[in-house]
Amino acid sequence: MKIFGENSIKNLLIVIAFSALTALFLILAFILLEGLPFIFNIGIKNFLLSSDWQPMAGKYGIFAMIVGSLWVTLGAIIVGVPLGLAGAIFLAEFLPRWMMRIIKPAIELLAGIPSVVYGFIGVMVLAPLIRDYIGGPGLSIMAASIILGIMILPTILSISIDSIKAVPQSYREGAFSLGATHWQTIHMATLPAAKSGIIAGIILGLGRAIGETMAVIMVAGNAVILPGSPLDSVRTLTANIALEMGYATGMHRQALFATGVVLLLIIMVLNYAATISIRNMNRKV
Amino acid sequence: MEDTVKFKIENLNVYWSGSHVLKSISMDIGANKILGIIGPSGSGKTVFLRTLNRLNDMELQIRIEGGVLLDGKDIFAPGMDPVMLRKKIGMVFALPIPLPASIYNNIIYGPSLSGITNKNRLDEIVVKSLKSAFLWDEVKDRLKTSAMRLSGGQQQRLCLARTLAMEPEVILLDEPCSGLDPISTTQIEYALKELKKNYTIVLVTNNTKQAARVADNTAFFLMNELIEYGPTGTIFTVPGDIRTMDYITGRFG
Predict the structure, then answer these.
(1) For residues B101 and B191, what is the distance between their CA atoms, to the nearest angstrom?
(2) pLDDT at res. B1
(3) B interface with A, Cβ–Cβ below 8 Å
(4) Nearest CB to B100; choose among A176, A177, A192
């Protein structure tokens, strides 16, 4: 009886696990089946390396959007990583424990704010500020980068704090007893030990930045042009799908699936590169 | 014990979140001697050791009363910088914790914090401290490899070498051989006996025989109190207190 119960639970779990995997696999297969034939049909070069996106005229070049996605993501990293890392070091190393108990949940709450709210603040506050004081149309790479950088902050902060806190006290004592100051100890003992956790946090943030759609549509301006400066409008890959899916049919619809394929590839490459770099760094130590 | 006094401890009391973990400790630690501190786990040995280089300061719930004088100066005086103090008082822990860097960089970490940047000078320090810790012959061909790849005994001697590289005046060791095999233990003990010519050494150990082998003076801690303190020969042959006798003969603890 007991054995029977044991086995049936195991089988049930297997079925559930495979259903989850199957769902993921089917989605992947569907995107590829819809997108890949289209890409080969109009030619990889015409699709990836042309900036001419006129679905009504049968022109489907997404180069400008690839560049737009990468710029916006890079910008988010430039804004979010230094702030997140410096904030995490301060919160984990210098803040008294009782304050930490208040601030940590507050940070996690930030992660739960819907992206449309961030986007709304971007449109109403940030974009006019950029337009009035720096230049350009306001709705731009810079606006999107700042909004995304703030959006990925909670992820980077809370994972970095956890990994800094997880460094054994004995590591710090080792450095302290060599006559290191608090900052030298952080630099030489704590951060190297927490490094892979911090990088994992940055990668998660990166994934969120490149995949984010709503806030980016609201603040990036969405013009299909190759950006010349951070003050120009851009359209990202995610924005392209979201903006046009409502009325796309036939080839146009397939083109949007193909955009999804490219997005998927970029995320896979970024994740892979990040994994490799973590592995190399761990080996070097 | 009538030699130069390095550390003078006067009526030291330490409280840790309500409990009294060191009770009225007074003792003189002689320069260029090895002081062995023995006693069962939880007797306050480690707290005592960590008080000497103010490593306990970082614990929030700790309160320290009484005086600890290093060369006649109170280490808890307001003008005393704990960072400067720890440059003078090196410490080796029970578990060797190399910094996540190469063997070479582990050794030069302390000296470069003190502002030494001359490459030749740093090379000299690396050679000298590795030799003093009896590790040089084993690692001289791979100074650039990660310290994490060394064996436990080698890591512990690396930590000793790293401490020596700062040219401290005192070396504190907290059960440095607890995780080591007998051969590595012998190597460390041999190194300590050589080092006492230039350094004052305080060795906390759970191994009473180790204290008997290397220490000039021995202190016996029990239940947060200093029970007995004197020349090692006396402590191990004619202890003055029945509890010391029981402990070193293995009747309890």
Answers:
(1) 24
(2) 43
(3) 53, 55, 58, 60, 83-84, 86-87, 90-91, 93, 95, 97, 99-101, 109-110, 113-114, 146, 148, 159, 162-163, 166, 172
(4) A192
What's the gap in Å between the CA of A194 and the closest CA on chain B? 11
A171 touching chain B per CB within 8 A: yes
d(CA B28, CA B31): 10
The residue type at A106: A
Q: Quote the CA–CA distance of B194 and B190 in Å, as a whole number.
A: 6
Q: Which two tokens stand for residue B115?
A: 């502002």
Question: Residue B222 and residue A243: Cα distance in Å, rounded?
Answer: 76
For residue range A27-75, what is the model confidence (pLDDT) as tens digits? 999 999 999 999 999 999 999 999 999 998 889 999 999 999 999 999 9
Q: What percent of chain A is predicted at pLDDT more than 90?
A: 64
pLDDT tens, position by position, A183-230: 999 988 899 888 888 988 888 888 889 999 999 999 999 999 999 899
Give, in order, the Cα–Cα distances in Å from B115 to each of A173, A188, A241, B79, B166.
21, 15, 57, 22, 11
* Subunit contact B113:A173, Cβ cutoff 8 A: no
Q: Which token pair is B121?
A: 């000078």
> May I ask the CATH architecture of the domain A53-284?
Orthogonal Bundle (1.10)
Q: Of B160, B132, B154, B133, give the one whose Cα is nearest residue B142.
A: B154
Question: Any idea how long chain A is?
Answer: 285
B172 and B49 Cβ atoms separated by less than 8 Å: yes
User: CA A151, CA B59: separation in Å to the nearest integer?
Assistant: 35
Task: Give per-residue pLDDT as tens, A240-262.
Answer: 999 999 998 889 999 999 999 99
Cβ of B58 within 8 Å of Cβ of A176? The answer is yes
What is the rounded average pLDDT for all residues in chain B? 89
ipTM of the shown complex: 0.83
d(CA B178, CA B204): 10
Q: Domain residue spans in chain A? A: 2-43, 53-284
Dihedral of CA B173/B176/B178/B182: which sign? negative
Q: A-chain residues within 8 Å CB-CB of B55?
A: 173, 176-177
Question: What is the pLDDT confidence band of residue B253, given thresholds at 50, 70 and 90?
Answer: very low
